[in-house]
Design goal:
Blueprint (H helix, E strand, L loop, with lengths): L12 H6 L17 H24 L1 H26 L4 H47 L1 H10 L1 H10 L1 H37 L1 H9 L7 H40 L5 H11 L6 H16 L1 H31 L3 H44 L1
């Protein structure tokens, strides 16, 4: 029985090896990334990269804060711009009208505050000699002066050689801070104007970064977050107006009618700042009250202590819960955390940020958890 014939030209594996053909090339093994050396190397590189990026962020931290404040103001003023747009005004003109109104309010605040401060400073200067003579007649001050030479030390501090340099250095420092404040204010105004004018285009460009299948959902969530920021600004305006009107009525009744309108404007503007703004306004009004008449100052102290409790636990939580749909406890906690992290800017951004996080948790995270 004959063996089956093979096809011509076909060489089996055994015949190729017998013919002395070269063996197939050996495959290179991949780098084992699970060795301690490799893991340590990549961890060190990642840590150095994170440290470098963190240093860059810290170096431009002040610029980022200005950008965040500008974006927050643009989102907060956008409802007013859209309201004017629905009345037939072009968006560019509506932006200019809203921004002009905000700047006019700030200018009125400064104009209202400067005369009050000037009057009170002149009053303090006029009454200083009388107060000094009354202190010298005081028995307690005389005993302290006999033992510790309080009056002599005070005169030496007031007329010493270091007073001029200290005052000059203080004036220079105040001047530099004022220049920095004006520069930052100009930057914020310009950025806010730009963000307001281009907000629809910026939103469309940002939403296009999302996948097409989820773009409608991302657009809905983004618009709701921006709406919550605008609602927060409206709620803060309502709270500030309540503080200003109540202060105006109180100051007219207590005997500070000559400064009532100016001080009420100061309280209104400062009350926009969460948590600490009301306290700052109360300190300003109470100090002027004590400078005018100690009884009036005491009345101001009692009134603002009582009103701040009412505002913090009744007005503010209720207004903000309707504006940004947050429980009162979360509002207070968010404001405290934001103020501790970034001061006034953090307090301003904390509540809308908490509202945005809460919205994302309700609309994205919880449905995914329920679907598992």
């Amino acid at each position: 029985m004959t063996a089956p014939a093979t096809r011509p030209g076909r060489v089996t594996r055994t015949s190729r090896e017998r013919a002395g053909s070269p063996a197939a090339p050996r495959r290179h093994t991949a780098l084992n990334r699970r060795t301690p050396f490799t893991l340590g190397f990549f961890a060190a590189v990642g840590a150095l990269l994170a440290w470098w990026l963190g240093g860059l962020l810290l170096s431009i931290g002040s610029v980022l804060i200005l950008i965040l404040v500008s974006m927050f103001l643009a989102a907060g003023l956008n409802p007013a711009v859209e309201w004017l747009g629905r009345r037939g005004l072009r968006r560019s003109l509506a932006v200019l009208v809203v921004l002009f109104a905000v700047l006019a309010a700030v200018v009125l605040f400064v104009v209202a505050l400067v005369p009050v401060i000037a009057d009170q400073v002149s009053l303090l200067i006029d009454n200083a000699p009388t107060w000094a003579r009354e202190l010298q007649r005081n028995a307690t001050i005389n005993r302290l002066d006999d033992r510790y030479h309080v009056i002599d030390k005070a005169q030496e501090l007031a007329t010493g050689k270091g007073v001029g340099s200290a005052v000059f250095g203080g004036v220079i420092g105040v001047g530099l801070k004022l220049v920095s404040f004006l520069a930052n204010t100009f930057i914020v105004v310009v950025l806010t104007l730009y963000f307001l004018a281009t907000l629809p285009h910026v939103k469309r460009s940002a939403y296009r970064l999302a996948p097409a299948s989820r773009r409608a959902r991302v657009t809905d969530l983004g618009d709701r977050i921006l709406h919550s920021v605008g609602a927060y600004v409206s709620g803060a305006f309502v709270v500030a107006m309540a503080a200003g009107i109540s202060s105006l009525v109180f100051l007219l009744l207590v005997g500070l009618s000559q400064y009532a309108v100016a001080l009420a404007a100061v309280v209104t503007i400062l009350d926009v700042i969460p948590m600490i703004g009301a306290t700052l306004g109360a300190v300003v009004v109470t100090a002027i009250g004590f400078a005018t008449d100690p009884k009036v100052g005491l009345y101001c102290l009692i009134f603002y202590v009582a009103y701040q409790q009412f505002e913090n636990y009744v007005i503010y939580p209720r207004v903000m819960s309707r504006s940004v749909d947050l429980p009162g406890s979360i509002i207070v906690i968010a404001a405290l955390v934001g103020a501790s992290l970034l001061g006034v800017v953090g307090a301003l951004l904390a509540i809308p940020t908490a509202a945005a996080i809460t919205l994302l948790v309700k609309e994205v995270f919880l449905p995914r958890q329920e679907a598992r």
